[in-house]
Design a protein that fits this description.
The protein has about 260 residues and is an alpha+beta fold. It is built from eight helices and nine strands.
Amino acid sequence: MDDFITTKYFKEYRKELGFAKQDDVKKFFAAKDIIPTVDYNYINLLNSRLIDIIEKINAVVCNEIKEADLKLFHNSNITIVFEKLREYNIIQKLNNQGRRPEEVYFSWMRGFVISNYFLKAICQIFEISISEIKLIGDDDLINIESFKRTPTADLEITLKNSDKLRIEVQSGFQGVNDIKQHKVLEAKRIFQKEEIPSVVIHFDLFNGQVAFVRLDTIEDDSINWITRQQMEGQTVFNIEQNYFIWKLTQNPPLYSDIIELI
């Protein structure tokens, strides 16, 4: 028998296989270097489901926040956005814990579409116009490096008393309603640095209810902090029932009326 097996042998063996880097060997054996082609027939079905979701929601919400021109809404928020993502080859680069890019696309688009659909409601809640809403999220539709979810809130508004407020819009679709820890930490950082409070408006579309949660005042030792195993063991703030104060089938509340409740 020849020499003892050493790390030098490992390196020479991998070199003979044709690989200079260990990561390249791992990717080869796991086929992680093969990027699957995007199934655009599947995406077309997912886009149709997005349309169906909005149409069902639009049929049950109060008249004051209904979308009057659904065809225009679908074109602006689904069709055009999809075409831009496809044009800049973003979709095939999407991945998250091994999920198919089509599934990551649908998950992102669903949140994006829901947030835009409820902009009219947000205007009513805070008694402002669409033009007074400042979009401050970090999502970029044409750059994969910045096409990601970050702790930064989605919106910033100025209330009638000139106070600024940051708003994070969330959607829940399975009856599980949480806030990720990094969003709370970011809200506290912003309040400490700029004295701007942050509020989550969480749309529980599974149960037809909406919660309002002041992020920067959540206590570090709150009993609502839990570990969610189905989210890779992440620490999250569970939104308990008393935070839900708006039934989606009724008129949205005014922020001035609920500010003491959140």
